[in-house]
Amino acid sequence: MENNQNNLFQQARNAVMNFMNQQNNASNAEDKQAAQNAIQAAYQDATPEEKQQLQQLENQLRQHNQIQ
């Protein structure tokens, strides 16, 4: 379970980074949704520390979206 959760957390981070790195891509909305879905999935069993980091990722996602 711990290993699976860590994997979900890593996937969420990767999805957000992927979205941020492809800001001019036509599939931007899909990438953003994928990142949000990954964050939500990781939230389910996240430790308090991970939840804090996921919150930061969500904030980055929002800020990045407002800049565009």
TrEMBL record:
Region feature Disordered, mapped onto this chain: 22-68
Superkingdom to which the source organism belongs: Bacteria
Annotated InterPro entries: DUF3813
Pfam families: DUF3813 (PF12758)
Low complexity: compositionally biased ranges: 34-46, 53-68
Protein name, as recorded: DUF3813 domain-containing protein
